[in-house]
Amino acid sequence: MPSKIRSLDDAAGHVIQLLARFLPIDTLFIAIQEGSTHRIVQAHNRGDSLVQAGMTFRSDVSTIIGQRSYLAIPITTSECVVNGGIYLVDRDTLSLSDDELTILNSMAALLSYTIDLEYATVTDSLTGLYNRRFLDELFERNNDAPLGVMFIDLNDFKRINDKYGHEFGDLLLIEIAKRLKQQIRQSDRIVRYGGDEFIICFQNLSEDNGVRAVQEKINASFLDPFVISGQPVQISASIGVSSNQGRYASLKQLIMDADQAMYHMKNTRKNLEANNASI
Fold first, then answer.
1. I need a surface site. Which of 18, 147, 233, 241 has the fewest CB within 10 A?
2. Which of 26, 124, 196, 259 is catalytic?
3. Do 237 and 155 form a contact (C-beta atoms < 8 A)?
4. Residues 191, 214: one domain?
5. What is the CATH number of the domain that holds 144?
6. Which of 121, 141, 164 is the last residue of a domain?
7. Which of 189, 190, 239, 194 minimizes the C-alpha distance to 217?
8. How many domains is the chain partitioned into structurally?
9. Domain that includes residue 17, residue range
10. Helix, strand, or coil (residue 137)
11. First-to-final CA distance of the chain
12. CATH code assigned at 67
């Protein structure tokens, strides 16, 4: 076990190691909610390997532990949202002392603080969306490569900044981020990639099975003007899409493909506008 804590997984490893020393429980694990599923970040089994780090389950933990007795200590964020739990699983009925419960709740509070810190490092301070550091973590995981990626670039955003000012532009970006989030599922990941660029990673949608439908929804959502400080503003976006489509491609490659598709669409739009202006 590393001595330094650099991530939630590291902190969870230390907590599991500590709890395993004084709790005679068959299985201990820490699971964090990610979208519609829970991911086990660390686990300890005294006998059979009931659970392992990396396993996922929905809301019903019995799908992986069967009929065994269990206790879950909730991990709650600073905004009072339950974001996971410390799970104790045993073949016998669990019975803990007050001191043991106090320690467990203290460990859950420590993990909650770690989650808040980690969340702050992977989110964009302006829009609240994920940032490029979050993408770097997805690159490292590799096995989380989605089936589909969408690259979104705002058209003529610089013109709005020049006309109304950067503070106005920031408020517009916040409203755009809100509208984009309304078009996707909880399990999808949306990233502010650059000043006026966004990336959406779809874990369970391919290009032929849903991503194109989301693209249409996003295009339609941009038809309505954004109202900033009482001022209606019209803006459009160029969107590029890429997907695995039966082949394996890394997340990084999918983003590059979607980026190229987006620039092709942007150039096509500019050429059409230039041709229309010359007529």
1. 18
2. 196
3. yes
4. yes
5. 3.30.70.270
6. 121
7. 239
8. 2
9. 8-121
10. helix
11. 69
12. 3.30.450.40
Count CB atoms within 10 A of the CB of residue 107.
Answer: 21
Q: Which of 121, 152, 182 is the last residue of a domain?
A: 121
Do 90 and 227 share a domain, yes or no?
A: no
Question: Which residues make beta-bridge pairs with 82?
Answer: 76
Query: Is-contact 28 19, C-beta < 8 A?
Result: yes
pLDDT tens for each residue of the chain, 279 residues long: 445 666 788 899 999 999 999 999 999 999 998 877 899 999 999 988 899 998 999 889 999 999 999 999 999 987 788 899 999 999 999 999 999 999 999 999 999 999 888 888 899 999 999 999 888 877 776 555 567 889 999 999 999 999 999 999 999 999 999 999 999 887 788 999 999 999 998 876 655 567 888 899 999 999 999 999 999 999 999 999 988 766 667 888 888 999 999 999 888 877 777 676 666
Q: Are 160 and 169 in contact (CB under 8 A)?
A: yes
87 burial level (CB within 10 Å; 0-12, 13-18, 19+)? buried
